[in-house]
Design brief:
547 residues; alpha/beta; eight-stranded mixed β-sheet; 15 helices; Rossmann fold
C-alpha cells in the first residue's frame, strides 16, 4: 500500500457514492491498476470531518460501507465489509494510480458482502442537494440503515419514514420465491471478447461453456486435448481461466447474451471436436436449501443446446451435481434434447471422484455423447479404490507437504519434500520457491480457539454439522462454493485455521502450477464450483478413444 499505515476499524456504518465512470470503478475494483483487493476513497475535507460527523477521527472507525451509484440513487446499493482504513496524501494516491487526485484522502480496503434490496435512499436524498457521505453508529446493520434514513429524512425535511427494520424482519432468506442473490462479480454488460493466440496443433480441439476457473479444461489438457475457448459470467473465473490456458480465447458475459457468431469468429474456422460445459449447479445442489425445480438456473442447459446446434462438435460432455437426478425430470429431458440437437446418442451416469484419484468425496453427474458411436461409461478407467490395487487418496496424502501457517500467514516456498505420489503429481516441476495461493484466512481469536478445540473429523459449529475440521486419514467431504461470499468451509486437520486456496486446489486435484485469481473469498467460489481435473482427465481419455 505504498507506506500507508492501516489502522483498526470500529462498528460504524458509512454510506457513500461512487461515480460509475469506468476508470474510477476499475480503480475501486482493482482492475486497473491490477491488484487483488478493492479500495474505496473519500477526499478528506472540513465538512466530512466536522463535529456533525462525530469529529475528525470518526471516519477512521468504520466497519461497514454501503455504496451507491452517484448517477442512479434508485439503483440497488452494495454492502461491503471494511477490512482496514488508511489516510493517503495526494502523492500516495498518484502512486496508487488514482485518476486525478486532489488533496488528502481516507482509504478503505473493502470486501463485498452483497446487495441491500429495498433500501430507498432516492426518496430521502437527491443529487440536487449534493448528496454527501453519512456516518452513523449502531449495534446492527438494520438499525444502522434505519439511522441513515432518519439522518437523510431530517436533512431533506421529509416527514414520512419507512420502517425498514420491520420489513427486513419479515424476510425468510430461505424462501424459494425470493430471487437468488447473485455474485457481485458477475458481468451483466455486453459480453467482453478476448482473442487468444492459439498455436496450431493436431490435438483434438475443445470449447468450454460455463467454464468457471477451468477444472474440466485442465483435465482435458492433461489428456492431450487443446483448449480453444472458455466462456463464463464470473470475472475472476475468466481471468483465472485465461491465465492458465496458453493462447486461449475467452468470453466474459451472461451466456444468454453471447452470440454464436462471436464464438465462431474467435475459433477462426477451426472445427470443435469436443464441446464441454458445467451448467451452474446451485439450483440442483443438495447443499442448497433453496433447491427447487423452477430455479431459473436449471434451464441454462438450453443455452448449451444452442451452441451444440451451431458448433456441431464430434463429442459433447455436460456435467452437473448428483442432485439433478432428484430434481424434476431434467435428466431424461436433457439426454433427449442433447441427442436430438447433437445428432448422437447421449447418456448420463454418476461418477465418484475418489475413483479417479481425487482426495474428496464428490459425486458428479455427467452426460456424454459421441457422433456415430455409442459411448460406454465403463471405458472411463478408475485409478483408485476397489479393484485398482491403489487406495483412495486422503486429505493428508493431498496437503501434508504444504508449509505450516498461522492465521493470516502466507508462504511462497515449499519447506519440505513431497512424500506421496499424489503430492509429487500436484507439484510437477514447480520450483521450490514458486508456491502460490498459500495464504491462510485472517481469523479472529475466537475462531482460532474454536478450531483448536475441535477434534479431527468433527463439526466446528453446533448448528452447521457439515463444517468440520478435516481428518488426515479420510477423504475430504465435498468442497462447495459457499454462495456469493463464502466463509471458510473446513478447518485444517493440524493447524488452527481454515484452508488456503492452494489446499482447496489440492483437494480438487488442481496442480500447483495452476494459479487462482481474485483473492481468498472469490478463490473459494472458483474452487468450490470446479470439476476436479483428475476426474475430467479420466473422462477425456475415454472420449479420446472414440474420436
Amino acid at each position: 500500500m505504498d507506506k500507508i499505515l492501516f489502522m483498526s476499524n470500529r462498528s460504524n456504518i458509512l454510506i457513500g457514492t461512487y461515480r460509475p465512470e469506468k476508470n474510477q470503478l476499475d480503480w475501486i475494483l482493482g482492475i486497473n491498476p491490477k491488484r487483488n483487493y478493492m479500495l474505496y476513497n473519500i477526499r478528506r475535507n472540513a465538512d466530512l470531518f466536522s463535529n456533525r460527523n462525530g469529529g475528525s477521527h470518526s471516519i477512521k472507525n468504520v466497519d461497514l460501507l454501503i455504496l451507491y451509484n452517484y448517477q442512479d440513487l434508485a439503483s440497488v446499493p452494495v454492502l461491503y465489509r471494511i477490512l482496514t482504513t488508511a489516510e493517503a496524501t495526494e502523492q500516495q494516491m498518484l502512486n496508487l494510480k488514482y485518476p486525478d487526485p486532489e488533496g488528502s484522502y481516507v482509504l478503505y480496503q473493502i470486501e463485498g458482502l452483497g446487495t441491500i434490496p429495498d433500501f430507498p435512499i432516492h426518496k430521502y436524498a437527491s443529487l440536487e442537494k449534493d448528496f454527501e457521505p453519512v456516518l452513523v453508529s449502531s449495534d446492527s446493520l438494520e438499525e444502522g440503515i434505519q439511522n441513515i434514513i432518519s439522518r437523510l429524512s431530517q436533512k431533506a425535511q421529509i416527514q414520512k419514514r419507512i420502517d425498514l427494520v420491520a420489513e427486513v424482519g419479515k424476510i425468510n432468506k430461505w424462501d424459494k420465491s425470493i430471487p437468488v442473490e447473485e455474485n457481485m462479480y458477475y458481468w451483466k454488460g455486453e459480453p467482453i471478447l478476448h482473442k487468444g493466440n492459439l498455436p496450431q496443433s493436431d490435438k483434438p480441439l475443445v470449447v468450454e461453456l460455463f467454464c468457471g476457473c477451468g477444472g474440466t479444461s485442465v483435465g482435458f489438457e492433461m489428456a492431450g486435448f487443446q483448449i480453444a475457448l472458455g466462456c463464463d459470467i464470473h470475472r475472476f473465473s475468466i481471468e483465472t481461466f485465461r491465465r492458465n490456458h496458453e493462447g486461449v480465447s475467452t468470453i466474459l458475459g451472461d451466456i444468454h447474451n453471447v452470440k454464436t457468431d462471436d464464438v465462431l469468429k474467435l475459433l477462426n474456422g477451426r472445427q470443435v471436436d469436443v464441446l464441454i460445459g458445467g451448467v451452474p449447479c446451485q439450483g440442483f445442489s443438495l447443499n442448497n436449501r433453496k433447491r427447487h425445480a423452477d430455479d431459473k438456473r436449471n434451464q441454462l442447459y438450453k443455452e448449451f443446446l444452442r451452441f451444440v446446434e451451431v458448433l456441431k462438435p464430434r463429442a459433447i460432455l455436460l456435467e452437473n451435481v448428483s442432485g439433478m437426478k432428484s430434481t424434476g425430470d431434467f435428466v431424461p429431458e436433457i439426454e433427449k434434447s442433447l441427442s436430438e440437437v447433437g445428432a448422437m446418442e447421449v447418456k448420463s451416469k454418476l461418477l465418484y471422484a475418489p475413483d479417479y484419484g481425487v482426495p474428496q468425496s464428490r459425486l458428479r453427474l455427467v452426460f456424454v455423447g459421441v457422433k456415430d458411436k455409442k459411448f460406454d461409461f465403463d471405458s472411463i478407467e478408475k485409478t483408485n479404490g476397489e479393484g485398482t490395487g491403489k487406495p483412495y487418496n486422503t486429505v493428508w496424502d493431498a496437503i501434508g507437504d504444504l508449509p505450516i501457517l498461522g492465521a493470516n500467514e502466507e508462504s511462497s516456498k515449499y519447506t519440505m519434500r513431497p512424500k506421496t505420489e499424489y503430492q509429487k503429481l500436484m507439484r510437477g516441476d514447480v520450483p521450490a520457491s514458486k508456491l502460490t495461493n498459500h495464504q491462510a484466512p485472517n481469523h479472529p481469536q475466537d475462531v482460532i480457539d474454536m478450531i483448536h478445540n475441535t477434534k479431527e473429523g468433527e463439526p466446528m459449529y453446533e448448528k452447521y454439522h457439515q463444517r468440520i475440521r478435516l481428518s488426515r486419514t479420510e477423504l475430504s467431504p465435498t468442497q462447495v462454493s459457499g454462495g456469493i461470499r463464502p466463509s471458510f468451509q473446513f478447518g485444517h486437520p493440524t493447524q488452527d485455521r481454515g484452508l488456503t486456496i492452494r489446499e482447496r486446489c489440492r483437494l480438487q486435484s488442481f496442480p500447483d502450477n495452476f494459479y487462482v485469481y481474485g483473492g481468498i473469498v472469490q478463490g473459494r467460489v472458483q474452487t468450490g464450483n470446479a470439476v476436479p481435473p483428475l476426474l475430467a482427465k479420466a473422462i477425456a481419455l475415454a472420449i479420446k478413444k472414440y474420436l
